Give the backbone structure.
Amino acid sequence: MPAVKSLEELKKLREEAIQKRNAKMTSGDVQITVAMGTCGIAAGARETMRAVLDEIEANNLAGVVVKQTGCIGMCELEPIVMVEAGGHPKVTYGKVNPERARRIMKDHVMGGKVVSEYVIQSA
Amino acid sequence: MKLRILDFRFGSEEDAQSKIQNPKSKNVMRELALHLLDIAENSVSAQARHVEIGVEEDLQHDRLRLWVQDDGRGMDEDMLARVTDPFVTSRTTRKVGLGIPLLKAAAESCNGSLHVHSTVGRGTCLQAEFQRSHIDRMPLGDLAGTLYTLVVGWPDVRWVLHYRVGECRFEFDSEPIKQALGDVPLTEPTVLTFIRESLQRGVAECQQGAHQGAHQGAHQGALQGG
């Protein structure tokens, strides 16, 4: 692996990211959490998370944090994804396959509209 | 056979666990990379801050070895016995998942084995070994995807991958990346592209490089054999 070259590349990416952050006002940060217990993984949570990350890349979304958590006790509804956006209460989505994940990214994360048909819990 | 026994014993367990055991279910862990993800998640649950993942495809001896080593809180002997075989004791004070027993069953059905070494307060090391060419050996699957998910999803953990296929090696360490980025998060779109591509390229090159090497190796082996 050409380590030195890639680290230089990263430093450039860092500067670009900081400039972009200064230039634009963020409209409230978004936190997305994907449940990655054994139950989640077996139900396809890795591909769900991948779809979320791919949408961030494809739409150049800044200010989105994607984290993982373990089993949250609703194994039959896995893969489970939680979204906290723009200071609103956390919304929990169930049976989130990659297709549903893309819809949630488009409608909820980018459009600000909760995708009510996939919601299993809203606190 | 083993899977069926598990099914019977865990008839009242949660839906998701029976799902894992049902080979006909669509939702099964059919990739070694998914098992690695599952085991690495255990490390995170055990408060690990530094996790090393190894995958070694030993073409010469036809073995495939996996290991996950962490600096988490570790396990005592009782816990250790139960994570690899949940039926050795009737004590049920703490719930034990089926991820490790399933990987153990998979390894043993492919002329292999699974061992876990652990020291309380110091960490755990899980090793699994398969006959690489065994007809029942599940594919490695998306190793780059597993690492990508872990590196981005648990940014406070240092993730290191050691991948070897034949003589071809790929090493990945999340630490220098995080140092170079400072306070810029890993989920910055351009950073995601960087990490995803580094992992995909590294794993693919290793597999392609070894493939070419394997042809040479096979040729040399034939000559020696003759």
In short: Chain B touches chain A through 48 residues (CB under 8 Å). Chain B has one domain: 2-225. The helical segments of chain B are 2-9, 15-21, 32-45, 77-84, 99-108, 143-153, 174-181, 189-225.
